[in-house]
Amino acid sequence: MKHFSLQPFPEYPDCTLIAYLHDKSPELQITSRRTVIVCPGGGYAFLSAREAEPIALSFLSQGFNVFILRYSICENAANCRPLIQACKTVKFLREHAEEYDVDPRYVFINGYSAGGHLSASCGTMFDLPEIRAAVGCEDNDLHRPTGTVLGYPVIASNHYGHAGSFNLLCGSAEATAEDRAYYSVDKHVNAKTAPAFIWHTAEDGLVPVQNSLVYAHALADNGISFELHVYPYGPHGLALCNKETSYSQPVLERPECERWILDAGRWMMNM
User: Fold this and answer.
1) At 223, phi and psi to the nearest 5?
2) What are the counts of helices (DSSP H) followed by strands (DSSP E) for the chain?
3) Which pLDDT tens digit goes with each residue over 119-164?
């Protein structure tokens, strides 16, 4: 395995990519691999370690090359900086596909909670003129992910939304409902939105399951392919749902939810 970090965007010194790549093997005869960009959650206030390397290694074991995106947070989360960084990362991996053994046809983005919001935004809001201009993709879709894998994502800016995330995205706790609605991902779904794999629990008390349901509804209304799993039990932030990511909290060990990452891998491999 090749493991290294890089800062590909000088204009965003707080944005880092951490790579987990398969070594090339003449015996395997695999010249490029489907690739996943992992976006940890943390309400745009921090980046959860539980939703970073353990996730990356799980996807690596399924045959993917993986990059963890450490995006801008706190006051640096305003003005669409994380979204621009996510879109630039998709574009960067396609433009450097040969260097990093990436199959440019299959570049997915995966996130949890606020990282799920970022991933869903990348799969939807990439099409906004201001995002295209910021990324340098006015006349192509190099920055559009092949698909999005969303774990208990923040989606809506209404009363089901995670207020702290939208406060940081808007740069103010006093932002208007109209300002917040700009970051409500379900409002931006259209015929070009990327397909999605979504999982959530009905019991999530921090980011209610209605976030995933409203996004799935918008995808269905626009004819976008998706797979949705809603598990009945489990709190917010399950990550891998096992002991490795439970940080000694048994409530975060939910064997009945644990299969989500294999289902997500199957979904990405079957695209």
Assistant:
1) 70, 25
2) 9, 8
3) 999 999 999 999 999 999 999 999 999 999 999 999 999 988 899 9
CATH of domain 2-270: 3.40.50.1820
Mean pLDDT of 190-210: 98
Residue 135: phi, psi to the nearest 5? -90, -20
Label residues 168-195 b or e (16+ Cβ within 10 Å = b): bbbeeeebeeeebbbbbbbebbeeebbb
Q: What is the value of pTM for the model shown?
A: 0.97
34-80 residue pLDDT tens: 999 999 999 999 999 999 999 999 999 999 999 999 999 999 999 99
**Residue 67: which H helix or E strand, with range?**
strand 65-70
- Helical packing angle, 260-270 and 53-61, nearest 10°: 50
| Residue 98 tokens, joined | 């040969």
In the chain, where are the structural domains located? 2-270
Beta bridge partners of 40: none
Distance between CA atoms of residues 220 and 223, nearest Å: 5
Residues 6+ apart with CB under 8 A from 113: 41, 42, 43, 48, 51, 151, 152, 153, 154, 162, 206, 207, 236, 237
